[in-house]
Amino acid sequence: DPTNAKALKDAGFKIVCLANNHSLDYDRPALVETIAALERNGIPFAGAGRTKADAHRAVILNVKGLKVAFLAYLGLFPAILPEREGKPSVAMAEATAIRRDIAAVRSQVDFVIVSLHAGVERKRHHSSRQENIAHTMVDAGADMVIGHHPHVVQDFETYKGKPIFYSLGNFVFEPSASCRQEGGKHWSGMIRATLERGKPIVATFEELKLVGRQPRLNHN
């Protein structure tokens, strides 16, 4: 619903990722409607666009004196949402494109943060495909990779001094009844990251609890 874009703005979101496997559920015109709704509310987005080139273009935000570039990719299957030149598209996590996109912005910014929609649903450990894509991103110049799609929290690692979070689980999204039977497992999380020019990002995972589809800090 387009009114949800205003809800995102009111909640304080500064940027969103549109690279996921549902972005074209209602075809390309609906993706353009989503883009327009975000634009009307002044919310930048990465990972999709009115053209393939737009989908692969980094968004640069000024954050307390730092320039931070954001890119986003869908990394489930190579052809799940075919990209089309000159048509609304979602950025696919193809190695050559990743290297090109990061190289195009690396020298202009202090940090590059990449969002990756990939992995196997309900698997608690990342797949080799996720790892290959994330490592490619870091090798290309990314400073942090943030993953999502499996609907559960997965493991995280530091690769070449750069943090990789393979899946943060659900956010405004309740676990299913069958999932809830797996008691004691993490379903949702967020990252607290400290960015200081000339230094690696310092990032920590913080567990969230979901109450009525709403994420809350879990201080228990």
Features:
220 residues; alpha/beta; six-stranded mixed β-sheet; 6 helices; globular
Short summary:
With 220 residues, the chain is of the alpha/beta class. The chain has helices at residues 3-11, 27-40, 52-55, 95-106, 128-140, 177-180, and strands at 16-17, 45-46, 48-49, 59-63, 66-74, 89-90, 111-117, 144-148, 156-159, 162-165, 188-194, 202-211, 214-217. It is 25% helix and 29% strand.
Q: How widely separated are the two ends?
A: 34 Å
Helix content: 25-40%
Percent of residues in beta strands? 25-35%
Order of SSEs, N→C? HEHEEHEEEHEHEEEHEEE
Q: What is the chains' assembly state?
A: single chain
- Radius of gyration from the CA trace? 17 Å
Description of the molecule:
This protein is an alpha/beta fold. 25% of the residues lie in helices and 29% in strands. It has six helices and 13 strands. The strands form four sheets. Strands 4-5-7-8-10-9 form a six-stranded mixed beta sheet, with helices on one face. Strands 11-12-13 form a three-stranded antiparallel beta sheet, with no helix packed on it. Strands 1-2 form a two-stranded parallel sheet. α4 runs parallel beside α5. The longest helix has 14 residues. The termini are far apart. The model has no long low-confidence stretch (mean pLDDT 91).
Chain-wise SSE layout:
Blueprint: H1 3-11, E1 16-17, H2 27-40, E2 45-46, E3 48-49, H3 52-55, E4 59-63, E5 66-74, E6 89-90, H4 95-106, E7 111-117, H5 128-140, E8 144-148, E9 156-159, E10 162-165, H6 177-180, E11 188-194, E12 202-211, E13 214-217
Parallel strand pairs: 1-2, 5-7, 7-8, 8-10
Antiparallel strand pairs: 3-6, 4-5, 9-10, 11-12, 12-13
Helix pairs in contact: 4-5
